[in-house]
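Key idea: predict the complex, not the pieces.
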Amino acid sequence: MSLSEFELIETFLSRLGEQRDDIVLGVGDDAALLRPPPGLELACAADTIVEGVHFPVDLSAEDVGYRALAVNLSDMAAMGAEPAWALLALTMPRADQEWLRRFAHGLHALAREHGTAVVGGDMSAGPLSATLTILGFVPAGQALRRAGARTDDEIWVSGTPGDAAAGLAALTGALEAPPGVIAPLIERFRRPRPRVALGLVLRGIASACIDVSDGLVADLGKLCSASRVGASLDSTCLPFSAAMRGAADPVKARRWVLAGGDDYELLFTVPAGTDCVSLGRSAGVDLTQIGVIESRASVRIDGEPAAAELGHGFDHFAGTPRRPG
Amino acid sequence: MSLSEFELIETFLSRLGEQRDDIVLGVGDDAALLRPPPGLELACAADTIVEGVHFPVDLSAEDVGYRALAVNLSDMAAMGAEPAWALLALTMPRADQEWLRRFAHGLHALAREHGTAVVGGDMSAGPLSATLTILGFVPAGQALRRAGARTDDEIWVSGTPGDAAAGLAALTGALEAPPGVIAPLIERFRRPRPRVALGLVLRGIASACIDVSDGLVADLGKLCSASRVGASLDSTCLPFSAAMRGAADPVKARRWVLAGGDDYELLFTVPAGTDCVSLGRSAGVDLTQIGVIESRASVRIDGEPAAAELGHGFDHFAGTPRRPG
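Result:
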């Protein structure tokens, strides 16, 4: 049976995620109606993922749905915001109901996990891409920002960045290793874990924060630029996962950790001496200090200026994606 | 000079529209931070426009920017909401700075007119499309909805629907007439006027409301379906613009009025006897009664069931767009 655009939205994109009682009216009218909690600031972000640009053409529908939401949840995490509502605008070449069902399934599971409801849906014919807008809450004045890092602050990162970039390289044939070694890396690309709990824990503690979407050095550069400071990284402190050590030679591995970005880990700064290990424990993620903030405006690694290609990260308009591998 | 994605957003997509003092943090961090007014409901909607689907490939950058926002402002109008903030996710094949400047210009002017600020921006490489998410306010319980029309309510429409569809036909060569006759129709497609002021005036008065994005009969069908009623239209009451009368024969004109949708007029119902002419005057737009709500669940025109092709409107997944002409 062929369904209209309106029916497709009703069938597949309504009732996704958590059923929240602050939703007055969800998917199905000209707009959703929501009841923001009093006294809180509203955090909102929109991100698009495009087939062949942000994910390979053969990525499963479930993974596309998961990733579309994950990249936005990561923006909430980076602000220390609690996600609540999402609006989804989906563009696809033809109304493939089975694909839609699986896409919705991948998105739904992650949305439920984070107490987030899809309150608006739009569908268009066109090349496959998904734009998700997320709305969340943060107590007034407590949001984490890119600006705020101060000289001598410590620089920390969550998890093991670079794994997702290596996983993508494995998916596209640019990295070869035994399946058992590669599988955890691919999983990191398919299912990045947005660090929402960590963002909440860092409120009032981190002096600055950003999520690593474009690459560790590139995003650290943005944090430094916003904070009007520089950074010095110690490459001997970089966190490598066991999978990364097993799958890639040290040169490639180092480049992935420094310039891969699809893991959506949090990169943040804290005053020297902050007990980040305990913070990480309470948020359920390992944290590693990788450097310190300096007053001079540049990002250096082991005392040397970071190579330009590391700082570019993943720029969609730079021609060939500047991913390592 | 080649700018990065980050720099393109900073240069072209920040500071668009009104500078509002309820914006704590705008474009440039991982999320925007906003201060919703206490006690109001938040109305939000997202819509994508895709080149070659929602607008022809040679539409000017200014018009694309204008239309991207206009279709969303129309959603606010249809809910009786006051627009406030917008997030823009733009996908384009290459970083064409001149196109971006002009796109931003077209969007900026309309945003200012409606007191709306662009608070978030995202840019991706990919086929040209723009997804805009709009956020606005409405007093609790006062939003206009599709559900609510009751038997014997009058059905009214703003302006002269169909003009934009005729204008699009003129742009694509499907309608030929002297330039002076066609120009106002093309203008209606290029620059639809979102009926925000009318939506505000209709609060507490209209029993149901929808914007005509897919076609008058198609959208009336949605309103009726949500309200669990039917409708009877009187074709002798349909509002035809002078331009439409001059450019198209009566058969084509009737089809455009009934099934064209790109004008973004408001279609709404009111209790019999409501002084809509005065309401229209205060909102600065002509209003026309075109029918009445009935209890039996169908849309009829002059007593006959509406032809199926009128009711489909513009369905992006229905193969050839079902536009008349």
